[in-house]
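[job 4417] fold queue: 2 targets
>>> target A
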Amino acid sequence: MAKLVGLLLFAGALAAAVALVPVGGRTVLERYRASRGPADFASRSWQEVAQATGLSRPRTGKPAAHGQRHPARKAEPAERHTDADRAELERIVEEHARR
């Protein structure tokens, strides 16, 4: 009975680690969800392990798209400062510089 409880605790800890512990920025569960299936997941995992241990070199060339969007033009700044704002800031900086 103790072996069964130990085995269940180990399985629970392993499941928690898979779901919660990030490895290289993403959890194993997130990596599995991003893959196309078990075979793709296994292939990508093996490539990562091989690169991390130095068994293979990273692939060269164009990286695969992972759903990240790159805007065609740069986004406009969220803050818009007027000349009055800039003049007030300059006044404050000069005032503090004199102290």
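>>> target B
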Amino acid sequence: MSYIRGHDWAVEREDQGDDFEDTISFPDSQVSLGIFDMVVVMRYAELVTEGKLEETQQRALQNCSGNVGCCALEKLLGLPDGFNTQFVEALHEFQESDLGKMIKQHHKEESK
């Protein structure tokens, strides 16, 4: 929700004449990178105070492999270059292996 509030705030700030050179595009608008950075920092603060930072970092690592921002997150967390990409590839290979498929089937049967 803060993203939506932040996006609206950022658009309003630009309408007031705040001028930043770089922009980031959304489907319905462009927001200056300087203002977007402020929104991101505010959201980061919310994640920290809500105790959701580590959970969100893990989701980003699992779902955004190869993304420039994810590579920066890996670096921030002290992970080796390409760690997440290699992990995701290895996990996918395991899931497609006979053992991975057997475990997946077993979990489906147990959840019934």
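[job 4417] complete. Note on B: The beta strands are 23-26, 29-32.
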